[in-house]
Amino acid sequence: MVEDWFFTEEQNMFRESLREYLQQHFTPEVIEHMEEKREIPREIVKAMAEFELFCPTVSEEYGGPGFDMVTAGIVGEELARVDPTGSACVYFLVPCSWSRSIYFYGTEEAKQELLPKMTKGELFCGIATTENDTGSDLANMVTTIKPDGDGYIVNGHKNYISGVREASEYGGGHVTLARQDLDKGVRGCTIFYLPLKDIDGIEISLDREMGREGMSTGGFNIDNVRIPKHYLIGEENKGFYIVHEGYKAARGIIACVCVGAGLKALENAMEYTKQRKAFGIPIAKYEGVQFPLADHYTKLMMCRDWAYKALRVMDQEKEGKATRFEVSKYIAMAKLMAPLWSFDAINFAMQIQGAFGYSLECNEQKALRAIRSFGWAEGATEIMRLIIGRELLGKEFIAYK
Q1: Which of 34, 195, 224, 397 has an alpha carbon within 20 to 30 A of 263's alpha carbon?
Q2: Per-residue pLDDT tens digits for 213-245
Q3: Contact indicator for 105, 240 with CB cutoff of 8 Å
Q4: Which CATH superfamily is domain 240-397 in?
Q5: Quick check: helix, strand or coil at residue 195?
């Protein structure tokens, strides 16, 4: 395909085989199950693990396939094509992004203990930074971590966290950020792995969201929970920087997910307009359909190219060919526009399908609700603009300092 010029032959072959595999497993019955039962069937989790979709950037040494970030983005895009609810996309992108933190910065003992099970889908790996009154303002978290002998004691709470039920019921935990040196703001934050299953002092709660029904969202209270020292990720008081690297990975994949959902919605709508007639001719012949279709498709393809470029730059950072500030800017640009343009495209796809577009049987209404969440997830649209502005103008023009 001409539009796939960016990818290697191996990546194009991987996409083709992955698309065929996912189409076999994500049947209408599976989508209905996720909506009605509000869970991803365990056989789907197993199928995803068999194709090595969990934690795909982890090396073979720890059970992963060792993909680069561009290939991980392909997985996100293809999942969005088959799962309009976005549930499996989240189940993929969260462990993919945050297992990297353990892989690159975790202790060898933690990597040996956790990563082989995470790559098999046996343990969920999430991220827990958000609190009731703290989203992007991490310096004001209430969760704390204190050294205690050969481990640490954690207290506080987290909320609006993906995968709470999955980690607490099936096994796993969250890469968690807490304040250690209370006088240093974000420079006093420490990051660590916090297991949720069968842990004294952990009390979970679940929320109901407007979309992504198959994936749980909720929170947990942390009351004097002790974690072993080897669950520390990176150095004490250096967690803020590791967290931002994880967020960059998640944001890049989210951009690919949004593009995949938007393009699939347009494809569905195009098929509809070829069959649906108004005044005796297919509505696909009308400029009122063709012109906005051209605009939405062009925007999504531009965003698609930029998303993969941003992920490639992220790979180059590990190769020493790009700075973390360059990566932040590129990723923020992709994350800024992908949810907005995808939402608009899906909304257009619903519009031109008429009354059917508003029915629960229409996949586009499912996708619209899912994509709306990515305007906040892993960094709000406003934060992306702040990051881009900071990199364009310089740190001396940061308003909140």
Answers
A1: 34
A2: 999 999 999 999 999 999 999 999 999 999 999
A3: no
A4: Butyryl-CoA Dehydrogenase, subunit A, domain 3 (1.20.140.10)
A5: strand
